[in-house]
């Protein structure tokens, strides 16, 4: 029997949603989203065609069976494919351009597909030839009669491979507009109370700029009153330069400021003023580590506290749910917020993602200011696709990108770095002069220090930080210092809540002039606001040395802080850390000051610029191909290849102190834990490798609970060291 009325979604005790209404709503919303990058027609058509398959009798029968609680609905759900229809129809309209919408529509539930795949794997090629329920008779003729828009104008690519990358990137942005529109339209009908929690209107960039300016004015006045130091004077000059250059036209900028020079607020001041000046929509701040993001987001909240809780969207894995609101949780799904603080992993992996959940936010990046903190930490093995993505955002999507670094621009185009970015404008125009004015430390290069000698030297200082390259070395050295008041250890073997509490204790002791000796891995180097009179750093890359030196005499209250750059008793681990340390070792005999701009330039020449064999080591760009006209892109392959962190592992939940124990106990209840429990537990996780988890399992120290591993033996979590593996260790057991 032919269906005469077509629905998209069902509802209890109210009329069902008409399919035509849903397609119109998604089309209009997707078109608005894509207007920011000049692609309204394409996105609107994707929205109007994405659910053509719902015009089949079979799908309507499925909806009816589901609403009536018919067990037959489950069987129907498995065979009623409603997303292939629009993809097949688009290709029928044009064998070339139609493939654009075919990619976008076919994946609007399952994610962007590879064009081709191995037997049994989901692939677009298979979906385009798949037999599906008849739908054309039910679809309005006017809907089927819509013509494909004209081919997009995507500028002049530098090569065929770049052209293919450019088209694939644009398809992913269209996909983002479609899936976000589909989610929001469906939510409006299915969960109107949830939809009502979303912010109705974002604050303007000018409003945020005004509040920040007032906050910084008060902060500057307090700093002058406390101490009129050269460091504070230079911070004021950096801020003034940022405000002056905010008027410059959108594009690439670099902000090269020594550690402690006020980059956190100055870069934000530039971004907000620049956005207000040029009509840009939001600011996204991306940092390399969660240890930085927690600090940055907190200081931003202090600045914008008068505007409410939802101004700053903090999106990362360790987010403390006590700081979340309902609106904030919803905003994190698609970054619908004026100020987003996130990690490099979240930002860059999303730019190459295929899953709907990760791609939803991408269209929000168009006409935004991206502030990339510690940009020199971008992985060499992904450098070429990463820089191509940044260039797309600037050239075609109206973005400005601020490359922040404590050393010098590492990513500028030059003769021996052909993939580098062209047209980068310096915000601080004399970085050498700024470096000299802000010199607060003296770096002394020393040879090998055995652990016994190193520990003895650290004990001669009342306040000292020692940074080493591995967690076992940090644990061993910390144990050698002794478990006494004033001695602290920091590493990722401690859960985030434990680390934060330890950092707060360290800051308080430094501020009060009390004994404070800290041994840490490199997690302490970037963005953690500590100020020691002396810092020891095991051999590492010169960029890491600069970061460690930034924890020494940070406020310039002493004439010079002491930084000891030494060779540890053990080599850095094989891979990136050892390569960068060896590069630094090559340069130590050539430069009196290893942190001078010329030394850093030589370091980057060896580490980045002369490593062309590593620029696309994972072969991400091979998944794009070199023939854009065929549209045969391998989106899932690309997403799998482009990963910042390759190391596989699992999280172990730690019942640390009362709150950690309370959250773990919540998993033992007979009903499933809520979202708030899972979000809170992220701060009580320690990520471990597979073989480390095996050690804990063999020792009977962990048990599965709610499909997670939970630490059940308290002897395997030390109050100073965090998680230990080999046996029931205490810190003092590690002393040799």
Detailed description of the structure:
By secondary structure, the protein is an alpha/beta fold. It has four domains: 7-193, Orthogonal Bundle (Hypothetical protein af1432), CATH 1.10.3210; 205-434, P-loop containing nucleotide triphosphate hydrolases (Rossmann fold), CATH 3.40.50.300; 440-614, P-loop containing nucleotide triphosphate hydrolases (Rossmann fold); 649-734, no CATH class. It contains 29 helices and 21 strands. It has a seven-stranded parallel β-sheet, with helices on both faces. The radius of gyration is 28 Å and the shape is globular. The chain starts with 6 loop residues before the first strand and ends in a 13-residue tail after the last strand. Mean pLDDT is 88; it is low at 317-324 and 728-736.
Question: Key terms for this structure?
Answer:
Hypothetical protein af1432; 736 residues; alpha/beta; 7-stranded parallel beta sheet; Rossmann fold; single chain; 44% helix
Largest β-sheet summary: 7 strands, parallel
Major beta sheet, strand line-up: 5-6-4-7-8-3-9
Secondary-structure class: alpha/beta
Average the pLDDT over all residues and give the rounded result.
88
Q: Number of DSSP helices?
A: 29
* Assigned CATH architecture of the largest domain: 3-Layer(aba) Sandwich
Total E-strand runs:
21
Radius of gyration: 28 Å
How would you classify the quaternary structure? Answer: single chain
Percent strand equals: 5-15%
CATH superfamily of the largest domain: P-loop containing nucleotide triphosphate hydrolases
């Amino acid at each position: 029997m032919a269906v005469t009325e077509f629905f998209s979604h069902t509802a209890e005790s109210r009329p069902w949603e008409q399919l035509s209404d849903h397609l119109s709503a998604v089309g209009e919303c997707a078109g608005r989203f894509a207007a920011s990058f000049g692609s309204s027609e394409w996105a609107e058509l994707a929205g109007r065609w994405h659910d053509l398959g719902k015009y089949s009798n079979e799908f309507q029968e499925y909806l009816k069976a589901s609403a009536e609680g018919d067990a037959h609905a489950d069987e129907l759900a498995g065979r009623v494919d409603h997303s292939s229809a629009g993809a097949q129809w688009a290709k029928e309209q044009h064998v070339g351009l139609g493939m654009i919408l075919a990619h976008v529509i076919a994946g609007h539930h399952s994610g962007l597909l590879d064009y081709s795949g191995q037997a049994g794997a989901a692939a677009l090629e298979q979906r385009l030839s798949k037999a599906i329920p008849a739908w054309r008779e039910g679809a309005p003729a006017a809907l089927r009669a819509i013509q494909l828009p004209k081919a997009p104008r995507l500028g002049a690519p530098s090569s065929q491979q770049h052209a293919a990358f450019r088209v694939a990137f644009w398809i992913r942005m269209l996909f983002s507009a479609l899936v976000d529109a589909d989610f929001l339209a469906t939510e409006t009908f299915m969960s109107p109370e949830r939809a009502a929690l979303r912010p109705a209107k974002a604050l303007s960039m000018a409003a945020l700029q005004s509040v920040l300016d007032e906050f910084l004015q008060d902060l500057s006045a307090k700093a002058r009153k406390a101490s009129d130091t050269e460091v504070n004077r230079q911070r004021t000059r950096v801020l003034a330069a940022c405000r002056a250059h905010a008027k410059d036209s959108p594009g690439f900028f670099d902000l090269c400021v020594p550690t402690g020079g006020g980059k956190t607020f100055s870069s934000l001041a530039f971004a907000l003023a620049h956005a207000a000046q040029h009509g840009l929509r939001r600011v996204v701040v991306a940092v390399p580590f969660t240890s930085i993001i927690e600090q940055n987001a907190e200081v931003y909240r202090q600045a914008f506290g008068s505007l409410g809780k939802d101004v700053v969207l903090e999106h990362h894995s360790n987010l403390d749910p006590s700081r979340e609101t309902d609106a904030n949780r919803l905003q994190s799904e698609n970054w619908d917020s004026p100020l987003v603080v996130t990690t490099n992993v979240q930002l860059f992996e999303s730019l190459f993602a295929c899953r709907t959940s990760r791609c939803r936010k991408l269209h929000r990046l168009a006409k935004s200011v991206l502030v990339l903190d510690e940009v020199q930490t971008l992985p060499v093995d992904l450098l070429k696709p990463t820089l191509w993505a940044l260039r797309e955002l600037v050239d075609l999507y109206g973005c400005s990108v601020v490359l922040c670094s404590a050393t010098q621009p590492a990513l500028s185009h030059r003769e021996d770095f052909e993939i580098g970015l062209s047209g980068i404008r310096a915000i601080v125009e004399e970085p050498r002069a700024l470096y000299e004015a802000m010199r607060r430390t003296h770096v002394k290069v020393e040879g090998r220090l055995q652990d016994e000698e190193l520990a003895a030297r650290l004990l001669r200082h009342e306040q000292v930080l020692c940074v080493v390259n591995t967690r076992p070395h940090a644990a061993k050295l910390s144990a050698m210092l002794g478990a006494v008041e004033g001695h602290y250890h920091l590493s990722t073997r401690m859960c985030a809540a434990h680390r934060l509490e330890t950092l707060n204790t360290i800051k308080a002791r430094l501020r009060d002039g009390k004994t404070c000796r800290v041994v840490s891995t490199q997690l302490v180097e970037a963005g953690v606001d500590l100020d020691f009179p002396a810092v020891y750093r095991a051999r590492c890359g010169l960029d890491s040395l600069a970061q460690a030196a930034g924890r020494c005499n940070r406020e310039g209250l002493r004439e010079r802080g002491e930084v000891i750059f030494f060779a540890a008793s053990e080599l850095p681990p094989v891979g990136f850390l050892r390569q960068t340390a060896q590069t630094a070792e090559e340069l130590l005999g050539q430069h009196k000051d290893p942190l001078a701009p010329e030394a850093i330039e030589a370091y980057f020449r060896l580490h980045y610029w002369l490593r062309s064999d590593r620029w696309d080591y994972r072969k991400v760009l091979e998944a794009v191909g070199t023939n854009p006209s065929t549209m045969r892109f391998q989106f899932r392959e690309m997403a799998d290849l482009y990963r910042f962190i390759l190391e596989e592992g699992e999280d172990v939940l730690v019942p640390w102190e009362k709150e950690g124990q309370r959250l773990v106990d919540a998993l033992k209840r007979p009903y499933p834990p809520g979202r708030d429990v899972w979000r809170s537990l992220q701060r009580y996780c320690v990520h471990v490798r597979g073989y480390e988890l095996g050690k804990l399992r063999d020792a009977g120290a962990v048990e599965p609970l709610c499909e997670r591993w939970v630490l059940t033996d308290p002897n395997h979590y030390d109050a100073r060291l965090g998680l230990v593996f080999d046996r029931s260790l205490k810190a003092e057991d590690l002393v040799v």
